[in-house]
């Protein structure tokens, strides 16, 4: 079953230095969907395990299985337009509406 349009939770504003979690979920896809977050139309990279090169400006952890995008400490650089895409390899992937987060 292809995924349905995911529901995205993106705060419209956040205080610098706080923990912010964005979530994305859809329940109809079978097999379960994986989720990809985008900021300003660009796919965000999933953080790799320890030992990999860590980008200095990466302040988030993205979980493709649960659909969460967690910022440990948001900065002004995290302000932008966010949306997520659900896909499970069946049918077309589905995106939620773009939402702006102002930090």
TrEMBL record:
InterPro entries: Ig-like_dom, Ig-like_dom_sf, Ig-like_fold, Ig_sub, Ig_sub2, JAM2
Biological-process GO terms, alphabetical: leukocyte cell-cell adhesion
Domain Ig-like: residue ranges: 3-103
Ranges annotated as spanning the membrane: none
One GO location term (cellular component): plasma membrane
Its membrane topology: Single-pass type I membrane protein
SUPFAM superfamilies listed in its UniProt record: Immunoglobulin
Location of the protein in the cell: Cell junction, Tight junction; Cell membrane
Keywords, ordered alphabetically: Cell junction, Cell membrane, Disulfide bond, Immunoglobulin domain, Membrane, Signal, Tight junction, Transmembrane, Transmembrane helix
PANTHER family reported in the protein's UniProt record: JUNCTIONAL ADHESION MOLECULE B
Family affiliation: Belongs to the immunoglobulin superfamily.
Official protein name in the record: JAM2 protein
Gene that specifies this protein: Jam2
